[in-house]
What does this fold into?
Amino acid sequence: MTPSAPSPRPRPSKWRGWLVTMPLAAALTLAGCSSVAAVSASDDTSTAQSTETTETETASQLTGATDATATAADVRAGNQESHDADDDAEWSESDAVTISLDGDTATASDTSSVSVEDALVTISAAGTYVLAGDYTGQVVVNSSGEGKVVLVLDGATITTDVGAAIDVQAADEAVVILADGSTNSLSDASSYAEDAEANAALYSAADLTLTGTGALQVSGNGNDGIASADGLVIQSGSITVTAADDGIRGKDYVVIRDGDITVDAGGDGIKSDNEEDAERGYVDISGGTIDIVSGDEGIDAFTDVITTGGDVTIVAGGGSDAGSDTASAKGAAAGVIAVLEGGTISIDAADDAVHSDSYVHLAGAALSLAAGDDGVHAEAELVLSAGDVTITDSYEGLESVSITVTGGSADVTASDDAVNGSAPGGGASEPGTGSATAEFTMSGGELVLLGGGDGIDINGSWAQTGGTIVASGPNAGGDGAIDADGGIDISGGVLVAAGGTPEVPEESSELDSVQFTFDAVSAGTVLTVVDSDGNALASFTTVQSTSGFLFTSADVVDGESYSLLSGGSAGEGIAGTYAAGGSGGSAVATATAGELTSTMGGGMGGGGGGMGGPGGAR
It folds into this structure.
């Protein structure tokens, strides 16, 4: 199937609308003040210059990232600093007001800042309050003074049918501490008015922190589970959320430092949705164990998704086999950049597993992905610099206009292209038209690719100076192991391609290639490349039926003769089923590096085409 592309969401000023159509690495200087009007790619220069300004800012100052090489530190530096504080879990029992909950009433040890009336507890001043017992009613915080309001839940069960169970209407900052060894629960109304400000079981109009070592069960029956209209920080605790809509939402940001968090949400699992401020609307995870089942996005950030630690598991929209009903549900979605620098992340999503409307940097996290559409999709630029990525199921595995691999590894299986360098706006480029095209560059790392379409398909240029690519593609139907509209230039590294008649690198490439065509062999067959002295250079175990094979390496010498043996034993594994050396087998094809292929048997070789054409080698 070919899933339809979802319509992109509008983005704040840091998105700007130019990221696909203008040079990605340009040091753009933007006119703007604290709130800068968005300029679409179609707006002319005079329109952009007419924007009212008070100061000049560069793109990096606005976004924390101007391309997909940005690190977590870069992105954090461009974002609003969170209110996270190391001492939030500290409190003194001697300084606390105790609130004993009992049915639809409650009693407080100090009534100067606590009132109880008609199943409503109201806290009106900063301070520390310990809540314990079962309560059928609401707890409201309405503090106009300075200082934090700290709510210590110590065996508190709060259930209401009139709104939020805990509603922080006003406070300088709110902290909820889950007392050691305690089990607590919050359950709200089954519905809310459309204009209700407090629309979650635990709601705060102020910055909100959850901390402590106890447990909290949250039931968001009418809308969200936990929500803050400002920032939300989770430092620790065992937190379980079920929600009719979003599970955990912080408008300005969601920061997760630690904790054992389980979310089952009808909407998004974890969400930050500030659409007005470029430095807000982000999700930042540095630790904890997070398990999300969501009807829509697992993690949804209007700007940035950052991970530097933690163990995250997401099933979005029923997973990759869910079908068209939830086809738009993505695993982790960022409006500007997703930097996955650490942690272990497992995603099974109905749409893209990892998606960004601009940049993705795979910078060290261990990823295991399955997707109904793309494994990893970046509208503008995708960089793999570190970490291990495994994509077990996808339509296209890694997709972007610009794809750069400098390190790390990716093992990708796709029903169409395992790696797709798509032209701006999607689809294929048109050579000779002068239109912008895709680009693929690789200087290190490892790609093991299995495509039902092409193993790797670049609708533009391909430049490889290092790293290892092992690509397998179909043996018929017009697709194959590798394809690049703008040609392949390889000056370093290794390229192994099996399937169809693989495209050979350009004659100008520094490294030489040898290409073989032969009668198709079945999956599981060992193919070994040997030189004229009988030395085995490399072996490859086929993963599907194959009648074409290409090997590019510094070990291949232009003008030398090589043979391809079938049926022997593989050598020492290097990447995927590509190995160094090998032994045994019988010859199925011979070729001279830089000349046309000759075959033994019927095969596909011997046909026309000069250097770089079918049957050619370089």
The first strand starts at residue 29 and ends at 32. The longest helix spans residues 72-78. Residues 1-63, 429-435, 598-618 have pLDDT under 50 and may be disordered. Residues 161 and 189 are 4 Å apart (CA to CA).
